[in-house]
User: What shape does this take?
Amino acid sequence: AAMPRRVTRISAVWAVLLLRMKALLGAGLSAEVGRIEFMQNRLEITERSTYVIVTVVRVGGMSGEITAVVAPSLTESTAIRGVDYQIDWQPLRWLDGVTMPMAAMVKILDDDVYEEEKRIRLVFTRVEPLSARGVANQEMEIVLKRDDDGGTLVFNPFRAATREEIPDSPECLYWVERVRGSSGPATLTLESCACSDSSGMREATLGSDYEYRPATEEMRFADRETGRRCALWKVMRDTPLPSNESGILVYRDKEVEKNEVACFCAFLGENSTASLDREELRVQFDDLGMAGGVTYTCFRGSECTLTNNVSTSTLVQGDVVYFDSACRSCEEVSHVPVRFQVEALGEVITLQFNRTLDDLDPEQLDICICRNASSQVPITVGTFHLLGPQKSNHATCRRGARSCLVKKLKGDYLTDPRLQEDNTTRLEFLQVLENCQNPNTSHVSLLRSARAAMRNSATDRYVPGDFVFENPLAFESTPAGIYKLCWCRVTDDQNCSSLTDYEVDAGLVVLAGPQLVPAQTGVIGSAFTLSDVFGVGMSTQDKVSIQRRCGAYDEVSLRANTEGHEHTYDFGILQNEDIPTGRYQLCWCQPDIAENVSCNRSVEFRAYFGEVDVLCPRAHASTDGMCERCQPFQKPNHDGVGCAFAFLAVLQAIISWGFGTLAFFSMFSQFESDFSRGPRAMPRLRGRRIIIEDVSPEGPRTMVTTLRPHRLHSCGVHIPVAFFGTGHHLLDVSGGGDWTVSVGGRFRLELLRPGGVRPPCRVDSSMGALALSAPRMLRHALVFGRMPLLPMSIALLLCSMLALVWLESQPGALLVSIFLGVEALLALVLVPCWRLCSKPLYKTSLASRLYEYEKRLDEVNPDPQPCERGPNRAVSATELFTLFDFFQASIKDRTMYYVEPNIIRPLCARHRLSYAERVGPRRVEWFVSHFWGTQFRIFCETIHKHAVSVGGLTERSCKESAYWICTFSNNQYRIAEELGSSHQESSFYLALRSGSCIGTCMVLDELALPLTRSWCLFELLQTIQLEERQKGFQGLLFCTSTGVLNFGATTVELSMNIGQKLATLSLENAEATSKKDKEMINSLVIKEMGGFEAIDRALKERIHIALEKCQKQVDGDFTSLLSSLQKGIALREERPMALQGSLNEAISDPRAQPPRPRSPQPTLITVSL
Assistant: This one.
């Protein structure tokens, strides 16, 4: 039989090869050698296949000869050569021009041993030439599939049949036998399963029709083991079985069931080598039936005892008997409330259930039996009829209704003759409870009288079978909700008078109405809204009333409805005239046309669901139900009746005053009134003045140092400021223009022009103040350290307002306004007091020095008097030097522009005199012509050099020299008077022309700056004229810090610089602060000298004479110096020869050596100004 199959297979292979060769020849072969490939990559066979032909083809060319050998790959093959197969090692050879396929033979060796799947991997070896080895199809895999050496497990008979009864002895339903091989082990398992095809037969139910007892171990056939075994037994109740065999116990029930079948599935173990002839076994039951079936009856809630004969052929010891509408699975029998376990067998079985049937609805139930031995489907052996009301009954009652009834209950009842003969006898009752089994947990109103009796006769409102509640008003105080209808039937053992008799659940009753709400509070004069009123059976037509007592007539009754807003009742504004203060009940009513309830009378609001306390508003007390306002700093008593003193209110008022006053004080202290526009103009509000300690340049910057922390923050911008009383014409508002500052520290501000530009010239001051505009002060001021003014003031005011709002007396708008007004007024009083008290504590260092110096002046000249202008207002050099020494720390390198406004003018402010009059005037001796831009220190040094030069070498004569200096001799408070109406009336002219003036001292520096000023030109003109007209007048002296040029007492460098400057100087370019003064002086020069060339020539002649004297003095000094040096050189040449002999002696006698000469020490000459 195998040979025809192999021949057919070989023929098919050759047919495929011929077709492929034809295709290759038709396409034309290349002249190349070509390459060899396997015809197939994979082939699956069994051990029964004797030979395998491996086909190799030549493709891609036919030129030349190709040889190759097909051999197995020993590393990649799992089959063993010589055991599983043999191969032909003959080489394959293609001659030149031959493309015919070649074949290699592989012989498969068959045995009777069960083996897993194996593989043979074939490859090409000894390929010549090597170029004939291709890329594709260079390997072939032969798969040896598993064979049937393990045999087959065969079941007999094909279908088993048995009677529906318990046998007298065990019988085998299915046998199993291993045939056609026995290599390797074989294991078998049987399980109960659903039939794959019942073929019109009824499938038996596991647990009710039969019980399956599975084997605890697998049925096992060892290697080479055969023979027959029983796979499935039919057993008796107590038949023991081997652990590797299964059995069934067939039940006999009351019903006759035909063509009933049970199915079992067979499974092989994991390592089994055998196969199955089929996987499903069927057992047909021949049903004998069970005669009869008893019906039992019982009332719900009654103690039921069932006694009857039950077939002992079905019941066994340990069976569970239970009642169910449809016998459920035995796995769920533990959830069945009514069940009974058979303890012992007998002809009569008594089942006593007490009250375990209370939870069941009345219906016809099956009597079910479940086995303990892991049965799943129960056995039905009878019927049971349970009587009483169903649990699905329901009714609805309304809280506060005058009547409530429950329509005839649904359920199964037995006909009672007394219900027909006596209409007054009540045999059935209902009780409303929260829990029928535990009535004591119900609401107290239900325990009193929430009982209904069944009516036996018809009336105008009821029909027979209706249950009418004896006292429906019992529901007035019962919370709305869903409750249980508990049923009781009068028997010999109970008369339904005790709540414990109502254990049968007959359904539910819905008690419509609102649920209890928490205690509410309403305030007279405020809106009262009752929200979140939830309940059962409510509608938007319901109404709620506030009255003294629900269900009673009450003159005080305030009603509200939902007005379309579900669960919310709006009573509007509570008016004391409509409802006095006190405690009221919340009452509910639902309109009912059938009951003629319109909810317009207080007696119809019977349902109580909460309470509300109507109180007086804050700061009001109740008197006979009417609210009256308490006086300030009073509060209502704890009971709300009458007022009492409130200490906390006083404390809160004090706190409020404190916060408010502090808020206004912090704000008012940052501002002050500006009266600079005149007494008639309305004063402006501006920021507080910030006292200046010093204004001076520091490198490229000009820094403003404040006396106290300025308490400003920049907010990232430059702050516009205005300066007052600084004495500097650029800073003060009257002529300074706009200034800004940037914060550089707690006490320091950098002075800037708008746009952040630094000042173009030097600015110095040690007095005055700066201020911000009112809006800028609000933005940049800091209070309490580093807190911004505006947010801090607002926060303090809010705290003050909160303290007022929290007052028990709850002040009105008028009282709040008064509070704020008092706080503002108190702050207005405190701000000037604070400023007045703190003013003496804070003085600048210059002000302190001025105060001390002024006391000294009071001692020297306690009663200064004014004197005539001109020559009588000179000051001594002593006063000048003393002033500089005292204020040197403040003056530093500053000029007269600083000294006059910051020192001279404040010292003379009290008497409004010139400084010469303040310290004691002298008669003029020397007139000083100078430039205010010269450093005051250099000015004093220059005057000192002049005083020493003209007054002698003694200190006394130096200090007695009197100088007329415009800064000290003119009354700075009366400048217009000092200038006079013409130049002849000016103090300058009067001093020079007084006759006592013996000369003019012109204070020069290397730039000759005084000669660039018009008034210095005027003084020069008068000096030139005096030289010609006044006898003894010494004329113009050029004074420097190193000496007087006219006396040759100055340095060469300074003399040269002054000479070079004056050589090119034209007095016509001199400037003046006042244009009028310049024009007057220029016209005077032209009138007196005939032009500026004459006065320029006169000036140059005088400086020429002075420089000649300097030259002679320098030449003389150099000649004297050179002479001294020449003498020193000659002395050195003579000295070595005179000392030669003594030197030899000193060398021989060390004790005679002279002491080492000391190096000369420099001599320090100090001049005190």
Summary: The chain has a mean pLDDT of 79. DSSP finds 22 helices and 64 strands in the chain. The CA atoms of residues 370 and 378 lie 5 Å apart. The longest strand covers residues 118-128.
